[in-house]
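Usage

Read records sequentially. Each one opens with the input sequence:
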Amino acid sequence: MTRIRQRRDRHFIDDQGHLYWINGPEHHCYLSEQRQWREGLSFEEVLEWKQCAPSGLVSQRFTSLLAACEAFEHHQVQWSLDLYLRRMGDEMAIQRGVDDYKPTALKEEETRTGRQRRQPWLGSNPTPAPRCELTARPASCRPVAPELPHQLRRRRSSAASPPVR
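and closes with the structure output:
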């Protein structure tokens, strides 16, 4: 029997550390498995900082939130793969997986209160931004050097060639 270890609203985590979300209206809801990509975050931090996204695994429909939880704990869930939800979860993971990600609600709170919050996965000591010595840096960061024309570059001139008819 699988146990729900922690639950907050429609999210819960089982005794194996897997995260699930109860989606849809209360009278016609389903379970959606959520994947996580950061190690060492608490259940509350994962939810607050939105460090989870749908894996694409969804259950059948249930008549209530309680029925969904009971079915989960008694291994009565039939899982299927929703490819659209999987792709959406992939996009969410890419967006939310960057180190400086902050959910909109936290950005708005920072604006309202003036208090900046640091992402828990970055640790307590701020680290300097990495330096890149490649030419892909913004122009304002590159050393100034005269641009040499490429030897094989061809110039087009409308005056040198007759119009095409």
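Summary fields computed downstream for this record:
- Helices lie at 43-48, 65-73, 83-96, 104-113.
- The longest strand covers residues 30-36.
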